[in-house]
């Protein structure tokens, strides 16, 4: 149990990332602090401007319900849901605060997105993408629910509702309406349903609440566009019903998927739920994280917007979802990627990321009015990496298709042409330098991982020849280029002195035998068998040279990405090490690495992108889909190795 005094509880824009919990309605997400403050909420989409943004600046808005006296807290999710229950205990009493983003009614249908399916579901009647799959959050009302109940003694609590639309630029006008408060200003209108009378001032809508055992207060906030009529306030009974509906919806979705039988079932189950929570309901896109500009290194400018869908996540995500039995969700995510990029022509680089609605222009800009988390400026929205050439994405797309090959039996002509163009691009471009998987903002280089994934693209395309209905000449060319890539990696990527496949080709010639944790994916993609001595040696070299004092894996050796400052250790890379150890026949060591990475989760099972090597605190955007994907895939590899 953690005790929070006033100074700590009021410290904004610097609270440890691990203190936050995720709420989701599969349209947007909120982060709630351990002391009951919603410090991040974007409406109506994951990538919309924040209505509550205190995560990044003390003046950017929040919604807080917390005891007025010193208190202790415990928190947990209600079962397999994203309804958060925080228990406040003071010297005088106990109160429960239950928070959720309302899902609305959960129906059934042939898809979880409401979009037309280009890739039909598998014919397996036992598969979970059958016609009765749940439509989770298809009718979400875009409402935030907060239910406060005193369960013992009595307690005074401070209530503050302080919306600040447009990332804190707008201070809305608050007016009383029947049953609550209307906030008007900027592009949004917010309606707060409140059972108590609130005072209005610069601090927002505030009140001192006095509760005795048995008292129960329900609050709800809805956000609409300026052109829309403000919604009516909700009755307490309607809020209770919406909360029950939300908990039941998450529980039903979780119960519709097979139980996990393998390492750390509670963390694997929560990771599967996190991927669903980060999946944008209207399209099936998965955001890399629901936040922007939580830094990889405090004060070093390594602050990025992750509220978009990366192509490279396709292979890892599909593998993780399929491994966890979520085949229908995997198909929908792959569909989104193919739809967003369907116009692609191989004369140019494939765009590496898209907006969650399929948008292409993700131009980056800085929000100079925000101070940033722990003064880590700049705060960025948009992401300039969308314009980078990153050759690995070809392999990740075609590998995702390979994992879903049982679902592609009736692939239409548009889909066939798209996958063939991706293979052509890999064949045409693999010899070019690029920015690599880690999106270096330095000079392009010949990254081994990029070449490896071009090999994957062509290897899968050759195996797909019949499905793609491709003429023999194209398949012959793909096979020839695939073999040339293998030769380049085995002769120019292998460094005998380092005893490893290095970060870039020709490291022997240029004297830079840097290591790259991404090369740990070699056994997972089938480039070499798990018992190949070079592969085993590479895994061992990375475990020796890229480990921090805590036993976690850094992405690469310092000074190779064109940015200032040193980042933390990368959670996904530690899971990659665990997966590679399992695939090279060392499940006991894999378990050890897996346990170290899993220990990076907070008390709710949520993981960030990185860990500060000095303090052990979380760094980077949160929660990070990549980390949860890594946990699932490593758990699958360990389970299979031990079998």
UniProtKB/TrEMBL annotation:
Domain Trehalase-like N-terminal as annotated: residue spans: 13-100
Looking up InterPro entries in the UniProt record yields: 6-hairpin_glycosidase_sf (IPR008928), 6hp_glycosidase-like_sf (IPR012341), GH15-like (IPR011613), Trehalase-like_N (IPR045582)
- Residue stretches in coiled coil: none
Q: Which UniProt keywords apply?
A: Hydrolase
Location of the GH15-like domain: 267-635
* Domain of life assignment: Bacteria
Q: Some GO term, biological process aspect, for this entry: which one?
A: trehalose catabolic process
* Segments of this protein annotated with the region Disordered: 100-131
State the Gene Ontology terms under molecular function. trehalase activity
Q: What is this protein called?
A: GH15 family glucan-1,4-alpha-glucosidase
Q: Which organism is it from?
A: Glycomyces lechevalierae
User: What lineage, starting at the top, does this entry show?
Assistant: Bacteria, Bacillati, Actinomycetota, Actinomycetes, Glycomycetales
């Amino acid at each position: 149990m953690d005790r929070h005094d006033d100074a700590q509880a009021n410290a904004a824009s610097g609270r440890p990332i691990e203190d936050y919990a995720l709420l989701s309605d599969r349209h947007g997400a909120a982060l709630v602090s351990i002391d009951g403050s919603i410090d991040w909420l974007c409406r109506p989409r994951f990538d919309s401007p924040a209505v509550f943004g205190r995560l990044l600046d003390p003046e950017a808005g929040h919604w807080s319900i917390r005891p007025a006296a010193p208190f202790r807290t415990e928190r947990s999710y209600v079962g397999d849901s994203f309804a958060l229950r925080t228990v406040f205990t003071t010297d005088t009493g106990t109160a429960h605060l239950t928070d959720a983003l309302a899902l609305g009614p959960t129906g059934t249908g042939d898809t979880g997105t409401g979009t037309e399916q280009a890739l039909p579901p598998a014919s397996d009647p036992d598969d979970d993408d059958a016609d009765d799959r749940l439509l989770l959050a298809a009718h979400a009302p875009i409402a935030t629910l907060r239910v406060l109940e005193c369960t013992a003694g009595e307690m005074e609590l401070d209530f503050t509702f302080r919306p600040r639309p447009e990332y804190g630029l707008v201070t809305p006008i608050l007016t009383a309406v029947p049953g609550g408060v209307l906030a008007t200003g900027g592009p949004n209108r917010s309606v707060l349903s409140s059972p108590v009378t609130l005072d209005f001032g610069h601090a927002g809508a505030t009140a001192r609440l006095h509760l005795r055992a048995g008292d129960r207060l329900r609050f709800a906030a809805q956000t609409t566009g300026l052109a829309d009529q403000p919604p009516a306030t909700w009755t307490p009974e309607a809020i209770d019903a919406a909360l029950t509906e939300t908990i039941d919806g998450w529980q039903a979705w979780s119960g519709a998927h097979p139980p996990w039988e393998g390492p750390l079932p509670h963390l694997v189950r929560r990771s599967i739920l996190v991927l669903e929570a980060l999946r944008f309901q209207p399209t099936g896109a998965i955001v890399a994280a629901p936040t922007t500009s939580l830094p990889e290194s405090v004060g070093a400018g390594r602050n990025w917007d992750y509220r978009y869908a990366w192509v490279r996540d396709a292979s890892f995500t599909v593998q993780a979802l399929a491994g966890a039995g979520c085949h229908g969700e995997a198909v929908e995510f792959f569909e989104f990627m193919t739809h967003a990029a369907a116009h692609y022509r191989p004369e140019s680089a494939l765009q590496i990321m898209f907006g969650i609605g399929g948008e292409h222009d993700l131009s980056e800009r800085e929000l100079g009015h925000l101070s940033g988390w722990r003064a880590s400026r700049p705060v960025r929205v948009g992401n300039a990496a969308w314009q980078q050439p990153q050759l690995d994405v070809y392999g990740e797309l075609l590998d995702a298709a390979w994992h879903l090959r049982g679902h592609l039996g009736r692939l239409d002509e548009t889909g066939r042409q798209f996958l063939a163009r991706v293979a052509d691009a890999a064949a045409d471009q693999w010899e070019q330098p690029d920015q690599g998987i880690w999106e270096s903002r330095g000079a392009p280089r010949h990254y081994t991982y990029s070449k490896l994934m071009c090999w994957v693209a062509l290897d899968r395309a050759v195996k797909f020849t019949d499905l793609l209905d491709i003429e023999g000449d194209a398949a012959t060319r793909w096979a020839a280029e695939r073999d040339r890539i293998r030769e380049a990696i085995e002769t120019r990527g292998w460094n005998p002195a380092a005893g490893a496949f290095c970060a870039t080709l020709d490291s022997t010639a240029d004297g830079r035998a840097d290591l790259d944790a991404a090369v740990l994916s070699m056994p997972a993609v089938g480039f070499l068998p798990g018992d190949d001595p070079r592969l085993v040696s590479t895994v061992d070299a990375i475990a020796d040279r890229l480990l921090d004092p805590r036993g976690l894996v850094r992405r690469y050796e310092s000074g190779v990405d064109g940015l200032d400052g040193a980042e933390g250790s990368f959670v996904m890379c530690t899971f990659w090490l665990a997966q590679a150890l399992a695939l090279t026949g060392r499940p006991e060591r894999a378990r050890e690495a897996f346990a170290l990475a899993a220990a990076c989760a907070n008390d709710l099972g949520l993981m960030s992108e990185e860990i500060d090597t000095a303090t052990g605190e979380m760094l980077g955007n949160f929660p990070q889909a990549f980390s949860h994907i890594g946990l699932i895939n490593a758990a699958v590899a360990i389970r299979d190795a031990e079998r």
